[in-house]
Amino acid sequence: MRFSVLVRRIPWTVSTVELREHFSQFGKVVRVNIPYDKSKGLHSGYGFVTFNSQNAYKSALSERHVLEGGIMTVFPGKDSQPVENDE
């Protein structure tokens, strides 16, 4: 099962290493991908983080994310499995 989130508004100074470290507080991060624009030499400001558990995924979606002074927004990834309600 995949539990991926889309992260937008990633500060241009943040790399995959910092993004992995930030999201590791919610659980085990399996993969981090930040697409780069080779013509500009910078990343595109968005990326994907994949967790190995639904709990980590849900925790990441429920929190506010600030990294290097920038507020990032987090959304469910397209390839993520549906999340069951606890209610």
From TrEMBL:
Signal peptide: none
Domain of life: Eukaryota
Segments forming domain RRM: 3-87
Annotated Pfam families: RRM_1
SMART domains: RRM (SM00360)
GO molecular function, one term: RNA binding
InterPro entries: Nucleotide-bd_a/b_plait_sf, RBD_domain_sf, RRM_dom
Entry keywords, A to Z: RNA-binding
Entry annotated with the keyword Transferase: no
PANTHER family reported in the protein's UniProt record: RRM DOMAIN-CONTAINING PROTEIN (PTHR15241:SF304), TRANSFORMER-2-RELATED (PTHR15241)
Protein name per its UniProtKB record: SRA stem-loop-interacting RNA-binding protein: mitochondrial-like isoform X2
Organism: Dinothrombium tinctorium
